[in-house]
Amino acid sequence: VLAVPAGGFAPEIGALRARFGDRPLLLAGMIGSNRGWREAPYLDCPADGRAVAAGLLRIEEANAAIVPGVRDLTHGRADVMRGEEVQLIGAVAMGAVPADGRACHPGTHAKWARLEGGAIAAFKTVMTGELFALLKQHSILADQLQGGVAPDAAFRRGVGRALAARELAADLFAVRARKLAGQLADADAAAYTSGLLIGGDVAIGLDFLSQGGSIALIGASALTSLYAAALDEAGQRSHVVDGEEAFLAGIRAIAETMQ
Amino acid sequence: VLAVPAGGFAPEIGALRARFGDRPLLLAGMIGSNRGWREAPYLDCPADGRAVAAGLLRIEEANAAIVPGVRDLTHGRADVMRGEEVQLIGAVAMGAVPADGRACHPGTHAKWARLEGGAIAAFKTVMTGELFALLKQHSILADQLQGGVAPDAAFRRGVGRALAARELAADLFAVRARKLAGQLADADAAAYTSGLLIGGDVAIGLDFLSQGGSIALIGASALTSLYAAALDEAGQRSHVVDGEEAFLAGIRAIAETMQ
Asked: In angstroms, rounded to a whole number, what is the distance separating the alpha carbons of residues A116 and A67?
């Protein structure tokens, strides 16, 4: 959404129209945010496909509609999502997540969701990907974090540390101290630090989710494989659901409910 | 130390000599690091004033000595300090911290220290100040974090939240969600977020310190007042020790032991 300048959405829609013809448009994600085309107010949890379809922001003159985001204000919490609700609805429609299942969206702002009766009952966002990017680009650890990240032994060591102690801000400084003490090679530092962050994310997510079956990891493979390894370290089963497939299935389910 | 270019320390020392004459120089802090003038290897915990004096890196040709940093590798941990050890030795020498006391250095990399028999027995560093700066300068929260930070009600709310739940990376995203939900004014966001970070720091520090008397907050007033408020929220007493006074007292104590 940041790639489109203010006032630039109408021309972008026009370009889509020129390419695909005058079909109805169903849009979701940050295009419905206060930085997007039109602001589609959040629906409160619990929200299912029917509620989302009923809450669409219709833009009649453009033959378009925007999916509302979902907000979780239950139990004194405050959380928001835009776009992931479509994937969750789609994953349930595909049969990839049970109606009372558990899901995780790895990412810049990773999300853990509880489904109840096919509805998004509650969710929690963790700033994992953004924190890693900040540390890699701008922090005292930046020089150490330029290596690759894979679900290897160094990554699992970081996950194990994060699951054993809830003190991320101290463990991050120890990345530097362990280098100075000869305990952490530069080649392992990025994977270990990613393990600290994703392991901490998993610890938060598992506190939040109810007990249940395999956790659906909705997204693309590089990141879902890291979360799968971290969940495995925590003794939890998971399975991967392709994020694009889930999104398309969700958009189809919402469109069918509209008609 | 970053303000002095590579090879620039000898001229800097020369400038000090020109101004103050040929007195013995006793230096401490990052000047002894691998980015400094000469690298003074770390001493292991426990370390007292006598051990530090015995471990000085002597630079005879310059009539100078550099205080070694201190390293904590006890119990599988890894942590380092350079400069704070002089303040801790000084605070004990001044009578501002008991020989078996507890201390905290607020800062970019905040440190919690346990003293035993006047020696630095163990310590833990938390990346609190650096994380706040990263969030304020570069994160999705940056626009929200340009306000002032004081030990006010918003700050204490953040501290209370951090003491109640160990999930900083989720609470940080909620700063944005609470704004969108109309629960957090921009004017309060910096103080609330600082409270989350310092409250989380205090939770880590109190886990690490043994039970004991008032915690010495060693540093300058803007930051020590925030830590005092956070410790008060956690039901702990604290007292402020001026960081420059403690440093000078520590350097004097080490110099006396040298002679």
From this structure: 20
Structure tokens, A237: 């089963």
**d(Cα B125, Cα B111) in Å, to the nearest integer?**
4
Task: Quick: pLDDT tens for A191-246.
Answer: 999 999 999 999 999 999 988 999 999 999 899 999 999 999 999 999 999 999 99
Hey, what are B173's tokens?
Answer: 């995203």
Among A255, A251, A258, residue whose Cα is nearest residue A88: A251
Among A223, A233, A227, A199, smallest CA distance to A215 is for: A227
d(CA A229, CA A227): 5
CA distance linking residue A210 with residue B142, whole number of Å: 33
From CA B35, how far away is CA A78, in angstroms rounded? 44
pLDDT above 90 covers a percentage of chain B that reads: 90
Question: What is the nearest CA distance from B169 to chain A, expressed in angstroms?
Answer: 5
Distance CA A155, CA A132 (A): 13
CA atoms within 13 A on the CB side of B175: 34
| Interface pTM, i.e. ipTM | 0.95
pLDDT grade, residue A259 (50/70/90)?
low
Partner residue facing B73 (CB), from A131, A166, A181: A181
- Tell me the average pLDDT across A245-259: 93
The β-bridge partners of A240 are A217
Determine the residue of chain B that is closest to A201 in CA distance.
B169
Distance in angstroms (rounded) separating the CA atoms of residues A116 and A139: 41
* Out of A80, A134, A183, closest to residue B177 by CB: A80
Q: Tell me the pLDDT tens digit for each residue of A62-111.
A: 999 999 999 999 988 999 999 999 999 999 999 999 999 999 999 999 99
Q: Which of A107, A93, A73 is nearest to A205 (CA)?
A: A107
Cα distance from N-terminal residue to C-terminal residue, chain A: 28
Whole-prediction pTM: 0.96
